[in-house]
Amino acid sequence: MSETVNGSVVIAHDVGLHARPSVKLTKLAKGFASTLEIAGTAEGPWIDAKSIVKVMAMKAKQHSTLFVRAAGADAQAAVDAVISLVHRDFDEAGDGH
C-alpha cells in the first residue's frame, strides 16, 4: 500500500479558487495516477481534486490555506505540482487577473 503525502499552501490568487484556477487545478490533478484530494482545513472535508464541480464548489478564498493530500505511486509529485501551481498564482500573473 502506498503512503499518503500531505502538504498545504496559502492561496494568493485575487479571486481565490474560482473558475479558471479550479479548471487549472483539476486539469493538473487528472495528470497523476494517484488519488489527489484538497480541503480547506487539515481535518477536511476532503474533496476529489480531479472533480471540477467539487473543486469549484469549495469556493476557497484568497489568503485561505489549501490542504493537499495524495496516495499512490506519484503522490509526492502530485502534491508538489499542486503546491507549485498555487505558488505560481495558477499561471495567471501576466494576464490581468
Structural summary, described in words:
- It is a single chain.
- The chain has one domain: HPr-like (Histidine-containing Protein, Chain: A, 2-Layer Sandwich), CATH 3.30.1340.
- The longest helix is centred in the last third of the chain and has 13 residues, at 75-87.
- With 97 residues, it is of the alpha+beta class.
- The protein contains three helices and four strands.
- It is 32% helix and 22% strand.
- It has a four-stranded antiparallel sheet with strand order 1-4-2-3, with helices on one face.
Search tags:
97 residues; alpha+beta; Histidine-containing Protein, Chain: A; 4-stranded antiparallel beta sheet; 22% strand; globular
| Number of domains as seen in the coordinates | 1
- Put simply, the count of helices is 3
Let me know the average pLDDT: 93
In one word, what is the shape? globular
Round the Cα radius of gyration to an integer and report it: 12 Å
Structural class: alpha+beta
Describe how the helices and strands are arranged:
Layout: E1 4-10, H1 19-29, E2 35-39, E3 47-48, H2 52-58, E4 65-71, H3 75-87
Antiparallel strand pairs: 1-4, 2-3, 2-4
Helix pairs in contact: 1-3
